[in-house]
Amino acid sequence: MDTSRPGKSRRPDYRARQMKDSESTTDLRTALSRFASGVTVITTVTGGRELDIHGMTANSFTSVSLNPPLVLVSISINAITHKRILESGRYGISVLERRQPEICHHFSGSTRKSEKIDFVWRDGIAFVSGALAHLACTVWDSFRVEDHTLHVGEVTHFWYQNGTPLLFFSGTLSTDTPKPVLPGMHATPTSFVEP
Ligand SMILES: Cc1cc2nc3c(=O)[nH]c(=O)nc-3n(C[C@H](O)[C@H](O)[C@H](O)COP(=O)(O)O)c2cc1C
C-alpha cells in the first residue's frame, strides 16, 4: 500500500470553519457545493380544464428505496413548485442532458431570456423533452424540515435513454463529457460555465 503523503505540489489546503454565524452559513454552502451532482427539472401539473405546468431546477434529487421504488427531492417551502406539488400530489423528474444548460437557467429563474420549452406528456405529467430520464412520481409522503420539504415520491413509470448528463459542481454547470476515472487517477472537472 502506498502510504506516502500526496506530492509536495498538491499539499491539501483546507479552509476550516465552525458553524456560528451567517458568514459560516455562506461558507457551508461552498463546502456543500463540492459534492458534484446531476441537474433535474421537477414539474407538476395543476388545474382542471386549463392545465398549468410548473417546474423548477433541482439538484437535491436522490434515490431512496428500490422496493418500494422511492425517490426524493428537497424543495424550499418558498418555491411555487412546493405548493403545487402539495396541490397535485404528483410530480415528474426530468434528468437534464448536457446540452440543456438553458433549461436549467430557465427553471431556476436565473435568466430573463424567454425560452420555449418543449414538453412531452407522459402519465399525465409534462416532462422536459430530450432529458436523459423521466420519472413519474406520486407523492408517498412529504416531510417538512425547517425551510425545506422532502417530497418522497413513489415512481409509477419511468423512461430513459443513453446520453451525457449536465453536471453541477461548485456552483457551476459543466457541459463536458465526464472522463472515466482510472485507478490511481483523480477526475478533474474542466470547462465549467457560470449558471
Ligand atoms: C443547479 C440548481 C439546483 C437547484 N436545486 C434546488 C433544490 O434542490 N431545491 C430547491 O428548493 N431549489 C433549488 N434550486 C433553486 C430553484 O431552482 C429556484 O429557487 C426556482 O426559482 C424555484 O422556482 P419556483 O419558485 O417557481 O418553484 C436550484 C437551482 C439551481 C440553479
Descriptive notes:
The protein has 195 residues and is mainly beta. It has one domain (36-177): Pnp Oxidase, Chain A (Roll), CATH 2.30.110.10. It is 14% helix and 38% strand. The chain has three helices and 13 strands, in the order αβββββαβαβββββββ. The protein has helices at residues 22-32, 80-88, 101-108; strands spanning 37-38, 40-46, 52-58, 62-65, 70-76, 90-95, 119-122, 125-128, 133-145, 148-160, 167-169, 172-174, 192-193. It has a seven-stranded antiparallel beta sheet. The protein has a four-stranded antiparallel beta sheet with strand order 1-11-12-13, with no helix packed on it. The termini are far apart. Bound molecules: flavin mononucleotide (FMN). Residues 39, 56-60, 74-76, 79-81, 104, 107-109, 168, 195 line the site of flavin mononucleotide.
Layout: helices, strands, pairs:
Blueprint (H helix, E strand, L loop, with lengths): L21 H11 L4 E2 L1 E7 L5 E7 L3 E4 L4 E7 L3 H9 L1 E6 L5 H8 L10 E4 L2 E4 L4 E13 L2 E13 L6 E3 L2 E3 L17 E2 L2
Antiparallel strand pairs: 1-11, 2-3, 2-6, 4-5, 5-10, 6-9, 7-8, 9-10, 11-12, 12-13
Bound molecules: flavin mononucleotide.
The site of flavin mononucleotide has 18 residues, from strand 3, strand 5, helix 2 and helix 3.
In short:
This protein has 195 residues and is mostly beta strands. It has one domain (36-177): Electron Transport, Fmn-binding Protein, Chain A (Pnp Oxidase, Chain A), CATH 2.30.110.10.
